[in-house]
Records
---
Amino acid sequence: MAQKNENPVHKADGTGQPSKPLTMGWKELYLKEDWWAIYLGFAMVIVCLVAFVNGSPIVKTLTVNPGGLKWTSLDQLFTHFANNIHLYGLQLVSWLVIFGVTTRIMGIKTSEFVPSFIILYLLSIVAFSIGGWASAGRYMLEPPLVALIIGIVIANFMPLPKWMDSGFRVEYYIKTGIVLLGATFPIRLVISAGPIALLEATIIALTTCLTIYFVSTKVFGLDKRLGAVLGTGAAVCGVSGSMAIGSAVGAKKEYVYSAITMVVIWALIMILFIPFVSKALHLNPGIAGAWVGTSEFADAAGFAAASSYGRFAGNEDAAIQGFTLMKVIGRDIWIGIWSFVFALIACMKWEKEECGVRPSAMEIWWRFPKFVLGFFAASLVMTYVVAGYSPADFKALVKPDLFGPLAAIRTWAFIFCFMSIGLTSRFKELKEAGLKPAFAFSIGVLVNVTLGFILSVYVFGDYWSMLGK
């Protein structure tokens, strides 16, 4: 891949194995993307909280995008931009200041970042616009997937200059998005999933990850770090999980992008496969939504699949609720758990075997992906903030006026990430990984989709069938 790893965890020693881990010491507090993702994520949470308490619409105004328009003619789309061009201008300036200043502190040239980010922003507007088409749902054109496709097409058929990679900060955008994801995950929301949903999500997360990891390393003899990234990418939230584990274990960027490629391919397949089978079997919408939640690898793709089947079955709310409880709440929370587990294994076992030196406790701390701590910290903060609201007030006030703007900001961060992934993904570099990662991932998919069907339909079917009633 073209994107540089600005904060390498390992330095190659010429043998193909990583040498002793590198650390920055306390300089990482202002030089690493992990910390800036936390600072930025919490700053946005504070801004949203202040706006919420004061009843100010400013955050909602500055998170404008055409993704929810449901336009049927280009005139509607052009009218939207004409009426809101000043807001888009303020939004672009805000993002440029936020990301421009922080990346400059981290050592990225502002003269390269600014023009690159402007291109990224404009392309993201295009992705949002396509996703806002009234028929986009029918063709599964969710903005994150559209952004990825646009980026891949440009990178491989109309390649941009190398220096523009300075603005395509994949890890920075996804880490910021993950911290914001934690802010929209108060503990009460996790608990609301209930023991059944959390139990099924746990079974899926454990089985899928461990299956792919052992098939990758024991059957195909792939690198342990690649196995960890592939396994987590399938078991949790594809792009976010792959990025988080890649950072936790010091994986090569090629490993991370190989996992993301497989996530996207299978996510697109499952958009078609699960609704098709669900229709053939006349599954209850809640059950089908839960099955989508167990076997989809990207939130945007899963939402599209659950929504399309729910509309077909006459109960879209039940299908989306089943998907949300199973995937967005149940499985995505495992991002932090797997990050901690694999970071610990990488430090205490893999690097000891490779370097012959057992890392100190502080080394483990330097290595741990700090943005995962930001995810949990943001969740705890928001849990405290919303603790005094009744369920009715939470749904009527907090969710639309506080969580809504936070989710909108998070969506922008994820769109920037997906577009950046596409813009730094070259097919010729992906081929270097070979077919073994694809085979290992696909075997895990077969286990995942089969187990998810059995659990959702037969084992816990009574629970999921009650949704929406």
Note: The CA atoms of residues 289 and 321 lie 7 Å apart.
---
Amino acid sequence: MDCIFCKIINGEFNTNFVLENEYAVVFKDINPKADTHLLVVPRKHVESLNDLEDEFLLGKLMMTVKEAAKKAGLSSYRTVINTGKEAGQEVFHLHIHILAGNIKL
């Protein structure tokens, strides 16, 4: 599979994880759209939210968002999930953006 996020998860790049658990990894976006811009990426490859059938995994991802935001010292933040090319999804591996501070969407 030629998925950049799968390669990051598998350690093929020297990516510094802000947080990781059994279900997801969290790292800084390389093209930030806010003062703080983190990505929460499930370890399991799922192309988009439309392809996610696992309610348990969705819950774990949202709890990871909460944990990552707390660890980053954020009390206020925006979450974004782009689903599909027309909605701005660029990497076709489900991911949740955590944005805080000066947001430039």
Note: The beta strands are 19-20, 24-28, 36-42, 78-80, 96-100.
---
Amino acid sequence: MKVILKSDLKGSGKAGDLVNVSDGYAKNYLIPRGLAKEADSNALNELRNREQSEKHHAEVEKQMAQDTANAISDKTVKVFAKAGSNGKLFGSITSKEISQAIKEQYNLDIEKRKIILQDDIKSYGAVQVEAKLHSGITSKFFVVVGAKE
């Protein structure tokens, strides 16, 4: 009997999978406990629609990441910080501050966890930074640290 699983089952499959199980297992265990539902035409149609919807959302998300990558690529983001007389910053520039500067200067939302810093930025100057926006989509841009008055 073909059933659509409502929750993960060890040895059978994950939630949302269409699996073939024995009739007795489906009728006596899975369906009464609400772990699966019979794969009739309505349920199969729902499953196909859900899969198409998830695929569409993934494509839209990837396209948005590509657009963001194109918009920020090779741009310069200016960040200001206080430093001592030797040019060494008090603390360091974090990905959170870079994310806020991108939002203010270019009106783009890039989450701080997607910004990859090779080393901490602890002095004035320009540093190349990479943002991993989606699987396989990265963008490199420059962060210029200037003196805060």
Note: The radius of gyration is 25 Å.
